[in-house]
Amino acid sequence: MRTLLSLPLVALMFTACPAEPTPAPAPTAAQEPEAKKEEAKKEEPKVDPIEVGADDGGDYPEIVVEPEGDQMKFATEEITVKAGEKTRIKMKNTATVAAMVHNIVIVKKGSGEKVGQAAMAAGEAKHYVPAHADVIAATKLAKPGETTTVVVELPEGEYDFICTFPGHYMMMKGVVKAVAE
Ligand SMILES: [Cu+2]
Fold first, then answer.
1. Which end of the chain offers a freer environment for a tag, N or C, measured as fewer CB atoms within 10 Å?
2. 91 CA to middle of ligand 1, Å?
3. What is the residue range of 162's domain?
4. 99-125 in b/e burial notation, b at 16+ Cβ within 10 A?
5. Domain for residue 7, yes or no?
6. 121 domain residue, yes or no
7. How many A from CA of 70 to the centre of ligand 1?
8. What pLDDT shows up at residue 71?
9. How far apart (Å, rounded) are the C-alpha atoms in residues 67 and 161?
């Protein structure tokens, strides 16, 4: 899967490179424009989606999402929240099998595949939540019997949510609709 997906990228890279690259004079450190360095600094990551959505214990509407028993599946595959209002989203892990560890990661529409694939490298310490631009908010991992939460405040629109525990994102996914009144 990963190899297949990266093929068009590789092709693109080759297309983008001229066949015979004209050698450019290598700039020395002194010649490098200062502004360019500043720009590069700004692009560096950035925020931890788990920290952004850290639950402050406020009195917000709650949406509880459970897995479908011990399956790799969300029992709720569509969530609706009020746009621009804080909502607590809970992963209540009712599974009983130790391998069924889950989270809820809200991502930009259509990016579940990308984020799911990047999740493995993020590692367990990061709750398998990659520092990816398409990640909007995420709960921590919940082992069977545990509940984890995230507080979101989503602009109007449609988003996807997935579980990023390794191997789960292909089956564990749903849609988040943030609707204005
Ligand atoms: Cu899962």
1. C
2. 10
3. 49-179
4. ebbbbbbbbbeebbbbbbbbbeebeee
5. no
6. yes
7. 10
8. 97
9. 13
Nearest-5° Cα angle at 90, 114 to 68: 75
Q: How far is it, in rounded angstroms, from Cα 49 to Cα 106?
A: 10
Give yes or no for a contact between 171 and 73, defined as CB atoms under 8 angstroms apart: yes
Give 101 Cα–ligand 1 centroid separation in angstroms: 5
Q: 62 CA to middle of ligand 1, Å?
A: 20
Q: What is the CATH number of the domain that holds 136?
A: 2.60.40.420
Q: Ligand 1 centroid vs 8 CA: distance in angstroms?
A: 29
Report the separation in Å between the CA atom of 117 and the middle of ligand 1, taken as the mean of its atom positions.
14
Interval between CA 144 and ligand 1 midpoint (Å): 10
C-alpha 124 to ligand 1 mean position (Å): 13
Print pLDDT tens along the chain (181 aa): 444 444 444 444 444 444 444 455 554 545 555 555 555 444 444 567 777 778 888 999 999 999 999 999 999 999 999 999 999 999 999 999 999 999 999 999 999 999 999 999 999 999 999 999 999 999 999 999 999 999 999 999 999 999 999 999 999 999 999 999 7
Tell me, yes or no, whether 146 lies in a domain: yes
Number of domains in the chain: 1
